[in-house]
Amino acid sequence: MTKQMLEAPADLHPDQGSDIEVESMQGGGLYEPTALHLRIGGMHCSACAVRIEKAVGRLPGVLQSAVSYASRSAWIVYWPDQVTETAIHATIRKLGFHCVSGTNSAFDERERRMLLTRVLLSVLFTVPLLLPMAHHYEALSFIPIPTWLMNGWVQLALATVIQFVPAAPFYYGAYYAIKQKSANMDVLVVTGTTAAYLYSHYMMFHGGANGLYFETSAVVITAVLIGKWIEATAAGRTAAELSGYTALQPRTAIIVRGETTAEIAADALTPGDRVVVAPGERFPADGTLWSDDAETDESLLTGESRSVLKKQGDKVYAGSMNLRNSVIVIVESSGSSTALFRLNAMMREALASKTSIQRKADALAGIFVPIMLMLAAITFVINYFWWTGYQSEASFLRALAVLLAACPCALGLATPLSLAAAAAATAKRGVVIKQADALELLARLKTVVFDKTGTLTEGRAEVSAVYSPVVHSAALLRLAAAAEANASHPFASAVRSAAAKSSGDRGSGYGTRPSRAHRLDLTSYASANLNGRNIVVGGYDLVKERGWSISEEIRGFAEERERKGDTIWYVFDEAHCAGAIALTDTIRPEAAAAVASLRRLGIRVLLASGDRAAAVNAVSAKVRIHEAHASLKPEQKLALIRSLQQARGAVAMVGDGWNDAPALAAADVGFAIGGGADAAMGAGQVALVHGRLTGVADTLMASRHAMRNVRQNLALAFIYNAAVIPSAVIGKLEPWMAGTAMALSSLSVVSNAIRLRWKLRMIGQ
Fold it and tell me: Is-catalytic flag, 451?
């Protein structure tokens, strides 16, 4: 039974928690929610996505449903004992769409190839219809036009092929939309082009060769298809950038069994297996290095181009490359349990999630088509009875122009393409944006709060000094290690390591294993019962909480080390302070530059730590943070975040997740930071996988550029509608011109999003 934690799209059910535990079932047992990623074909506008989202969301057992038109993907979370994946697929097919599970490059390529075929066929038959129009313009009158192209029957034949071959999917889409009592872009295209085609068909038999508008329907269909192909190409490129990670994970692995080796499927690896990885090959699973040393390329996961030196016992990740020497790795997780797979899942989920702006745009797109159909009917009535004086042809053409000008495509593409470009750009730098809402919130950010230990510092502490007036320093370390035996805090690891070095082994103290050991983050202490004695290790807050006393000698040692930036842990033996341990943690080399970058962006930067004031002030001075808060418990950090939100607006919290989870959750945007890919699995909406603090400013800049691009796209969409539709109503636009303008509006939005992609490449360079 394989479990993984997946972040749910924030736009779906805000009242639910953001973490959804997903369990793939391999037989009976307790069912838990399952996440399903789909690639969807046949969508023509954001109204299609909204229709799928609603239909799937109504299925019993579906907890969450998010469909993105821009990425042609869906993210669905459901109870497998109430609804099956087959039923979800069937529901989507009933709506007139087709889908496939997972990331399927062949599926995407087939969709684009079919669309390109339709485009080429439509262009091939449209050009002969456009040539006779050259004589309508004096500047083009020199172009020789074959007389047979002027024949109405030839035009009818050419238009018929276009109308019912490359445009056939529009009819299918319109049929299924109307069947579901909905309306989408297909309804507009089919209504407008069919009206122009049938009107020209009628004039062929009743009005002669004059008044034919076959080229109108042909040009509109061709323009729409070209726009769809450009959209699909841009969406496919973005989806490939965001979800192509698992393609680099090897399908097979060389496993060591006794004295022999064998090649097996990488998914079949189990914890404890030993695999051989040759130089130039990628690791097939997450694990620990069994060989003495290795050099790896982890840029796929971290965005860091420099090679990483590994020694025995260090962790290696699936998808990263072994650069030299054959090595042996002990497998810890494989298949869908690897960090690479989980990162890929979070990126796909982020691509399907939506910002509040996008949700509003989708809602508008859902009612836009019916409104435009009504406006076209009103246009015909007003023109026929008032403006044109009962001229049915002129009134019809104006109503037709309104239909052909109106399309919600540009509106639906305005937000997701820009956000996807930003997510792809940050992912290449080792920053995983789990929720699309985070990008929108980051653009409004006013304040960033940093944790100290493991965030501004490396999180790899060392014991720098030990003071014990009664027992030997090695004995004090063994007592502390006993209390910290099962603690996961980085400082606990440092104490255990120092104790092992001092005693020459990894004993817990006095040769006896402690009967109980735990660390409580809310009270910041650890304790153990050792040979009937209660050993407690903690900071100064523990001393105040318990009312215990500390000798002047120990207090003096602590104050001196704190002024140097060290953290002090006191060791108590039956409420008597046996000594103190000073722990030092190296400040990240890029910390000061990261703070300076944020300040240049107009961001207020604070430091909030549970450490003592002297240590906190020493670190804040080195990284040039002018506002520092010390001795904060987790609940006090939470209160600080909320007070800053009330006073200044949006606040981001950057923490390593050890005791920052409440603050990370309360912040408008939480950055989870750490070394290695496991950082992305922690709390927060954004994960700094590589652990570089400069990623905070880079992501903030990317969000600002992206949201500016979104606003530009929305402005383009609304300005287009505000200018073109009224012009169509009063007869200033020919129908073919209105239809072409509709396609150009989508093209302008796609082009602006592509421009953003180029701009984002410069961030951080």
Answer: yes
